[in-house]
Amino acid sequence: MLKDLIGALILLLIASGYYVLTGDINSSALADEIGAAGVPVVYAILLAAIALSLAAKALIRRRFTRAGDLEPINDLQGEGRKLSGAAGMLAIGIAYVGAVTFVGYLISIATVIACVALYQGERVGWRLARIAIGGGITFWIFFDRLLGVDMPSGFWSALGGA
Amino acid sequence: MTAAWGGGHDSSLGGGHDSSLGGDSLGGDSLQQPGGEMIAAVLEGLNLLVTTPLALAAPAGVAWGILGGALPGISPSISMALLLPFTYGMEPISAIVLLASTYIGAEYGGSIPAILINTPGTNAAGATLLDGYPMKQQGRGGEALGISLYSGVIGSFFGLLMLVLLTRPLASLALRFTPMSYFALGVLGLSVIASLAGKSILKGLAAGLLGLMLSTVGTDPISGVPRFTFGQAALLDGIAPILVMIGLFAVSELFLQSSQPAWEKAPPESTKIRFPDRKMRRRLFKPQLIGSVVGTVEGVIPGAGGTIASFLSYNEARRWSATKEEFGRGSPEGVAAPETANNTVATTALVPLLSFGIPGSNSAAILLGGLLVHGLVPGPRLFEENADAVIGLYTGLFVASLSLLVIGSAILPLCLWLVNRPKAVLMAFIYALIFSGIYTINYSLVDVGLVLAAGTVGLVMRILGLPLLPAVLGVVLGFLVESNYRRSLVLSGGEHSIFLEDPIATSLLLVAALFIIGSIATRIWSSRRGGKEASHA
Question: For residue B73, what is the DSSP state?
């Protein structure tokens, strides 16, 4: 139930933000009767209406839920672990996007492999190093050399390398 | 890209890759006429087998699909999504066959961990587990795997036959489509949300609207003004559906898996595949027939999918079995029925996709992305303008079904090895593969960022219980719906009655309404039945 309430709140925020942004859409002499902002405005209003319905439904259910009912009021317990687990993975991804242009694909992708494996419980040691370096080189050979994809070379290009 | 699918977002859907299928050697008639033209189509299929890498793409897709399906958490759609970026540089027919074959392979692959470690590799394999794992516990794991593979091949061939028979007649109807009809078709596609919404129809609608909102990013289809681009030129073509799909399905699954415990290991001595003997084949005929019929019906109806087909056919096989008491305790029929059904769905799900462009499942949505990337627009024009692509797809699926039998047994040791790799290492390699694959599409790190963002949104949606497929449907169909709605109103001078004056549009809107009412009625009926059962208990 708490999950539905929070979900409804997030959806309402998205609908509001999206509605505000429709105000930035320019009008055009070529526009039809509905205009470029017409359909987005309808979407925003519909989403807001659904969000409010979800919230109302959750509140009504909460009102009639008694102790001992099968459905718990706080159904978000344990979900924080999922978010924190994902946050680490997301951080690794963002770091990759930020660093790959400067560091180069080969080193970045090997680092991603090492970081994710480490984050998921692999121990620090030669095995991890072998996996990361071997994986990085394999990916680099496959994408850059075999498929001919121009992967970011980073500072290596200044040194005349990959 | 046809006018019906819009113009403003061409590059985002087509990726700037022109189809090389312009030379329609058969003039499109080969798929219209029976008899002699059918023979010409078969000959063209054989020709394509020799002149294109089709014969390699099909088994490669099957092998990839089996490996992906065998990994718990990697669904058929995720296996296909991971492969999608690599198909950009490929010749269109081979690319589509590779993706479609992956779907076939993954449906079988999902049964491997279901039978061996009591963990379904795919949702549809959840029904296989009910008797497959007990068989393995009785030391009959090899027999269960053999029945699963044999039934999967039968289902795959049956589904292919239905695909060939049903698709063209349905698609020919779409030749008479107007902008009003295309709008109504889009609405029909979106009406699938009613049955895909999971527990809450409101959540399904919310997810669908989120997808529709994403589809408005980019250039307006009528006036050409930019919308929600924040001054970024990269967003003028809109957000490519492929990025949303990979983010929502694959990345969010990795995010979710990062907090899950490692899956169970399969015993290394786990079996050699043992195919059913003649007596067993006779016994399996009835459940396989049930699986084929249920799989065809469920595949053709958008939104039903392999999981429902598997459980439904399992239930029907038990109902019609002479040995009901064996079900749940290691019945071979309990493995055969769902495995036939989910492999039948893997091919019949292409019927609504190829005929009308409606993706009825996650995997079909990914395949639609693959078709659009190569400039192949589903519908009647596909059969007219790219007949060789359709023939190539049918031929490729035939080769894929055949190779499933061979690769399915040969690849088992590799599957076992893969399933037994540390989860940490597997996740690291999949993450690296996604980053590398996405970059190859447009050589753009913005795309990688968008996929990470879509993955985060997907994770939040999963946690909040918002279904993912309605959002994908919204992204894929949003532009079709909006552009044709507005074109229709331009034609009518703003009169909405134009939608009721077009017979096809009216019929499709009526079907959509019936579909929605039917889904809601089913929900109410199920919840009342559930309530009654609970009160009796």
Answer: T
pTM attached to this predicted model:
0.73
Set of chain A residues whose Cβ sits within 8 Å of the Cβ of B226: 25-26
Chain B residues closer than 8 Å to A6 by CB: 464
Contact across the interface for A40 and B489, Cβ inside 8 Å: no
pLDDT in tens, B496-507: 899 999 998 998
Q: ipTM of the assembly? A: 0.90
Q: How far apart are CA B307 and CA B312, in angstroms?
A: 8
d(CA A159, nearest CA chain B) in Å: 22
Q: Is A35's Cβ below 8 Å from some Cβ in B?
A: yes
Provide, as residue numbers in chain B, all residues whose Cβ is less than 8 Å from the Cβ of A28.
220, 223-225
Place of tokens 């028979």: B165
Structure confidence by residue, pLDDT tens digits, B419-444 = 777 889 988 998 998 888 788 777 88
Secondary element (H or E) of residue B526? helix B503-536
Q: Residue B260's closest CA among A86, A91, A7, A124?
A: A86
Mutant choice from B435, B457, B484, B533 vs A, greatest count of A C-beta within 10 A: B435
Measured between CB atoms, does A95 come within 8 Å of chain B? no
Burial of A146 from C-beta contacts in 10 A (0-12 / 13-18 / 19+): exposed
Chain A CA closest to residue B215 = A40
Rounded to whole angstroms, the Cα distance separating B348 from B166 reads: 9
Nearest CA to B170 out of B159, B180, B162 is that of B162
B148-186 pLDDT per residue, tens: 999 999 999 999 999 888 887 777 766 677 889 888 878
- Residue from B86, B187, B201, B216 whose CB has the most chain A CBs within 10 Å, to mutate: B216
Q: Tell me which of B302 and A101 has the higher pLDDT.
A: A101
CA neighbours closer than 13 Å in the CB half-sphere of residue B109? 36
- B209, B445, B464 ranked by CB distance to A46: nearest: B209
- Could you tell me which residues are beta bridge partners of residue B219? B226
What is the arithmetic mean of pLDDT over B67-92? Answer: 79
Partner residue opposite A40 with nearest CB, options B216, B256, B455: B216
Distance, CA of B440 to chain centre: 23
How far away is chain A from the Cα of B464, in angstroms, using its nearest Cα? 6
Angle between helices A79-103 and B445-464 (to 10 degrees): 180
What does the pLDDT look like over B239-269, one tens digit per residue?
887 788 778 877 888 898 888 877 666 666 5
pLDDT value for B8:
36
Half-sphere exposure of B128 (CA within 13 A, CB side): 39
DSSP assignments along B211-277, one per residue? HHHHHTSEE-TTT--EES-TT-GGGTT---HHHHHIIIIIIHHHHHHTTSPPPPPPPTT--------
Cβ pair A89:B255 closer than 8 A: yes
Query: For chain A, what percentages of helix, strand and coil (3-state, to nearest 5) are there?
Result: 70, 0, 30
Structure tokens at A10: 């997030």
What residues in B contact A141, CB-CB < 8 Å? none
Give the pLDDT score at B442: 78
Do A86 and B258 count as a contact with CB atoms less than 8 A apart? yes
